[in-house]
Amino acid sequence: MNIGQAAKASGVSAKMIRHYESVGLFPEAARTDSGYRQYGDKDLSTLRFIRRSRDLGFSIEQIRELLALWQDRKRPSRQVKAVAQAHIDELDAKLRELQAMKATLEHLVHCCHGDERPDCPIIETLESGQPRHSDRKA
């Protein structure tokens, strides 16, 4: 099948298939005499594996490692678990960062009067990193 058909069957866009080939995550496809890429069932399985890995937020390097483990039928499962656990740890760190951002924004929104005055702690914080304390009462 050609790249368009492979994209449709795998759920990976043709652009991303070419990208994965260019970064060495996915092997370059066989080509017809006229230069068109050709993909088989094994390629589709690999593309689906990559897509599901990306859906879970694994990085390209983590997917490269998972692909190697997937293709090694003698792999110890502890190696797969270690990759997944490292990703969970990264997700936990990102979640903490997002929660801190949300708390900061909630505080700033709460402090903003949202009226006709130009004073706005949100803008002041974005400008200087610290909200200015206004002498005016709300």
From TrEMBL:
PANTHER family: HEAVY METAL-DEPENDENT TRANSCRIPTIONAL REGULATOR HI_0293-RELATED, REDOX-CYCLING DRUG-SENSING TRANSCRIPTIONAL ACTIVATOR SOXR. One of its GO terms (cellular component) is cytoplasm. This is Cu(I)-responsive transcriptional regulator. GO terms for biological process: positive regulation of DNA-templated transcription. Residues 1-69 form the HTH merR-type domain. Keywords: Coiled coil, Cytoplasm, DNA-binding, Transcription, Transcription regulation. Residues 81-108 form a coiled coil. The lineage of its organism: Bacteria, Pseudomonadati, Pseudomonadota, Betaproteobacteria, Burkholderiales. It is found in: Cytoplasm. It comes from Piscinibacter terrae. Pfam families: MerR (PF00376), MerR-DNA-bind (PF09278). GO terms for molecular function: copper ion binding; DNA binding; DNA-binding transcription factor activity. Its main location: cytoplasm. NCBIfam families: CueR (TIGR02044). InterPro entries: CueR, DNA-bd_dom_put_sf, MerR-type_HTH_dom, MerR_fam, Tscrpt_reg_MerR_DNA-bd. The gene is cueR. SUPFAM superfamilies: Putative DNA-binding domain. The keyword Transcription applies.
